[in-house]
Amino acid sequence: MTGKEKVLAVLNKEKIDSIPWLPFAGVHSGKLKGYTAKEVSTDAAKLVESLLEVNKLYKPDGQPVMFDLQIEAEILGCDLVWSEDAPPTVASHPLADSTDIPEKIPGKNEGRIPMAIKAMTEMKSRVGADTALYGLITGPFTLASHLRGTNIFMDMVMNPEYVTAILEYCVKVANAVSTYYIETGMDVIAVVDPLISQISPAHFEEFMAKPFSAVFDHIRNGGAKSSFFVCGNATANIEPMCKTGPDSISVDENVNLAAAKKITDRYKIVIGGNIPLTSVMLFGTQQDNMKNTIDLIDSVDNTDLLIIAPGCDMPYDIPVENTIGVQQAVHQTEQIREMVKNYEGSTIEFEGELPDYANLERPLIEVFTLDSITCAACTYMKASADDVKKHFGDKVDMVEYKYTEPQNIARCKEMGVKQLPSIYINGELKYSSIIPNRSDFIAEVEKCL
Q1: Cβ(258)–Cβ(237) below 8 Å
Q2: What is the pTM (predicted TM-score) of this model?
Q3: Whose CA, among 116, 269, 347, 361, lies 20 to 30 Å from 246?
Q4: Which of 3.90.1640.10, 3.40.30.10, 3.40.1400.10, 3.40.50.150 would CATH assign to domain 357-446?
Q5: pLDDT tens, 292-323?
Q6: CATH fold of 3-339, please?
Q7: Nearest-CA neighbor of 153 among 161, 295, 145?
């Protein structure tokens, strides 16, 4: 079978002999050809050249064309901050001080959509016969958050009618962009919504069930398969996500894949995941990546309805040999299992000292993130901490620890941080993979003053 046939067979709930492999090489693709993240995010020719290198080196069964959650937001008025080694991030929110509902729907010829379409069309022609191609759109809730900012979380309590209305608008945007991508021949449309992990199942049922069901129905009616991509600790929302009817769900390292698969299996939905991006793929060895992949495969009860993939968009600087190691472990599982059966993984030792939390001069807010520049859920968690820091000024200290730095990985282990993003106040966990209500957050800090 070709890789494309394997992916589509799994999504059609057919039993096959091997597991599909889906590397999320977004801006990392540019690293392979010496291009910056901004170059592959703005230049179709450089993007296609880089994606073809991904296809050659990593032998994917399925492959995303762009992993960029800012394309729609940019067209709708959000300012972006660009990076040389990461996707752009949203820097402004046009509805931060307004509860208006926009009417504009991104056109096929606006913003960077033409560039995405050009790259998709070229990739379809070059590798589309053998590789399942994924078109990624921004999910309704993350798009609403881009437009409204962190106020969207307060709105869910104080102004639920507005949240419903803005999500209905964002569904229209999602459906329009997914149609453009389906028309290029994308096999799968992935609805990427990192912020789903930051809300409760009750809020999911109240606000998200109908919008996401509508998007997946639209994709299905367009003749493509669908995937629901979520980051962070989405464990509590796996079953609600299943009920919206995607063909597959993709989770990151915060979710126990084996436990989540028991739920998705009940709904006959494919699950994809969830090789750790930084501790293994970025900072591990090739053997670490092989061993982790084998252990991941062996952790599930069965390998039906399973796709092996990184936990999310791959960091720019992941060593090529590490991703090749994952590919080999997926495609040559028995051979690699034998090779690493006695291998013990490497660890990063913490070399610093934790603060003396009992004797701090002022309250200390610590934000543990994957990276607030590249992870949308982390962006908004960090933004909520920035807002509270601004509120209190010099009365409090605030620091972010990004999981993209080796010593911060070790610090997380030393602190016992289990989920990202998380917020600690004076060394105590206060918010774990859920963005706090502003008034509650302020009240928690005031207790420490």
Answers
A1: no
A2: 0.90
A3: 116
A4: 3.40.30.10
A5: 999 999 999 999 999 999 999 999 999 999 99
A6: TIM Barrel (3.20.20)
A7: 145
The encoded tokens of residue 97 equal 């001080």
- The bridge status of strand 422-425 relative to strand 364-369 is antiparallel
CA–centroid distance for 268 within its chain: 22
> How many angstroms separate the most distant Cα atoms in the chain?
64
Residue 437 one-letter amino acid = N
**C-beta of residue 41 within 8 angstroms of C-beta of residue 87:** yes
**Residue 402: C-alpha distances to residues 207, 280, 369, 370, 379 (Å):** 30, 15, 5, 5, 11
pLDDT in tens, 340-392: 999 988 788 999 999 999 999 999 999 999 888 878 888 889 999 999 999 99
Token readout for 366 is: 């610590």
Residues with Cβ within 8 Å of 401's Cβ and at least 6 positions away in sequence, in order, are 366, 367, 368, 369, 408, 411, 412
The 10 Å CB-count burial string (b at 16+, else e) for 406-420 is bebbbbbeebebebb
Sign, Cα dihedral of 406, 408, 414, 419: negative
State in Å, rounded, how far the first CA of the chain is from the last one. 63
Average pLDDT over the chain reads 95
Domain with CATH 3.40.30.10 in the chain: 357-446
